[in-house]
Amino acid sequence: MKLHYQESGEGIPLIIIHGLFGSADNWRSMAKYFSRFYRVISVDLRNHGRSPHSDEQNFTVMAEDIHELCEYLRLEQVNILGHSLGGKVAMKFAAMYPVMVSKLVIVDIAPRQYFSAHTPLMD
Questions:
Q1: What is the per-residue pLDDT for 11?
Q2: If exposure means fewest CB atoms within 10 Å of the residue's CB, which of 5, 13, 64, 88 is most exposed?
Q3: Local structure of residue 106 (DSSP, 8 states)
């Protein structure tokens, strides 16, 4: 899936992945700051922001979406910052494509299963 993304800065790529119900816009001020040091690519995950919507949504397909974006942008190695849901996607991406990940920063989530209080809302 071709994700919507915003890009700023130059240098080593830093992909920023937002949290549940968020979008790349949530990280705009931090992206602006980081763009002084990195080529920042802020993405809207599938079913979020301005990216396409799909009935299929799981960590594997969302990590594959990030990989497709990396291929489209010809990025061989990236730093990734993932927040909450984006952190889970970033961890899955790193597990699936470890050679591509130089640095991984996970914000506000741990690599364990969470019981979702949001399930009724999403249903």
A1: 97
A2: 64
A3: E
